[in-house]
Amino acid sequence: MLIVKRIVLLLLFYSGSVIYAQDYQKVDEIVSKYPNRFSSAAKLANQISNDFKTDSDKARAVFFWIADNVEYDSKEYGKFTYEYADKEEYLRKQKKYDDRLSKRVISKGIAVCEGYSTLFSEVCTELGIYSKVVSGVSKTTFKDIGKRFYPDHAWNIVEIDKKQYLVDVTWGAGTYGNGGYRKGLDNSFYLTPPDVFIKRHYPLKYEDALLKYKISKESFLNAPLVYETDFSLISPMEGIIQKSQETVKFSFGCKSGTYTVDYDIDRKQNPLGDLKCIDYKLEFEIELKNIKRAKELTLYFDYKQVAMFRLK
């Protein structure tokens, strides 16, 4: 059993929540009336060019159309493959591969992350907008905390008005888990601030993180999963909590107010109640008892998933 103690807190300043400032409602409304299938990236690009003038609106139109019309299908993994002997052959075959893959995704409406990101890049290229596919490591469940480093995901960098941004169309389109695929637009994965994106995405080439400071692979792999950007995790920074500990203290940066706090242990919900955020800081302490078989601990603030830890 877990005994949770409330602690009122002090000190430190929290800079506030991440705000995704631009309202894309008008763009989304127009694109929602597009056909749900096109024969090629060029066809979709032509439609977008007819309706929008700025690169900002065009890039958003690409994101929304893909997120709205393409569904995740794990059977699409490894659909096309090729071999090459040198760089010249690689570049030639990769171009054909990208073209073939994007045509399949845009005409069939199914893909895995590689298909989502390739199509996004191909349509942007047709629109004269710089974009590229980024490969790297992702974290989605408690089992990913402390895992070894290997590439398992793909996303995009897109350049708008001479500034580069991060986009994950796959996660922006919906979620995939034990219950299968659940479609649902998530704008938090569109033009995501790099310091937020890095919490769940680590590129093979670190310059693709678009960060001015370095986060090591080890720090990324061992950090907890952080979901809700309205709160800033202060401690613990290690994602693996040893069950041999008697107590664990949690500390979050927050905006002034009162928050309903709940936590799950292996998906068993435990209401903690309403806690006040004072001086931009919220803390509580959990005493660990009789949880030998427990594997995960998840925190919720105002019924939103905030962070997940692995129990070991």
Automatic annotation (TrEMBL):
Location of the Transglutaminase-like domain: 105-171
Protein origin, superkingdom: Bacteria
Pfam families per the UniProt record, alphabetical: Transglut_core (PF01841)
One annotated Gene Ontology cellular component of this protein: cytoplasm
InterPro entries: CAP/Cytokinesis_protein, Papain-like_cys_pep_sf, Transglutaminase-like
Gene3D superfamilies: 3.10.620.30
Annotated PANTHER family: CYTOKINESIS PROTEIN 3
Protein name as annotated: Transglutaminase-like domain-containing protein
The species this protein was found in: Maribacter algarum
